[in-house]
């Protein structure tokens, strides 16, 4: 196992040195996950389940499509909470849903509240807590139950699945009104519009190649074809030679670009457009 890790480190450093010299390419190397065997990493951190979704159908016929800014990031609007760390809990599916809802509340109300991912991990009965789940199932549960998503301070993250806690009617909480979930494959230009219209988007991607990601724009090597990790798109940038999505992860700020990763736009890299969801508050 150690020998396998050392060999992979040398290989990654060699690849990283090549890509680093080529503008825009992703770089790979030693990070906090590099000493974990790939199969253990996948079992621990890539535990989001994908769900078959209807394709989004555009309704633009005679109307003119809206002009979009060449660059946009919800972080610039101060409506995105700090990057979280799911630790060894496979709760990315819950973190992504909660992080998106935090931003949607801030867009609507004008101030940020850190909400409880642990509540969703413990209470979304269609999912398996820290052993994995689906953002769509979590949104379905929140919508059907009208459960109040409480503050992180009231229901803190424990990095393990616990008993579901219920709160009184007088307790503060966010109740979602509805949610939408679509497949935007071959429609990433429309995804850009929906990002601005709806807010930060929950997506499920193939993140097998992200284990040793350091920075830059991922343009290749997401070829497994199986979505396994839930993240949040907060923005995009089309001003350079390679347009990319700005994607928030839940592996802490020491991973990637202060906890973020850039994904090339337009070719469904890492399956980023296959499963896209958002709540309405």
TrEMBL record:
Keywords: Disulfide bond, Glycoprotein, Hydrolase, Lysosome, Protease, Signal, Thiol protease, Zymogen. It is found in: Lysosome. It comes from the Eukaryota. Belongs to the peptidase C1 family. This is Cathepsin O. Gene3D superfamilies: Cysteine proteinases. Its main location: other.
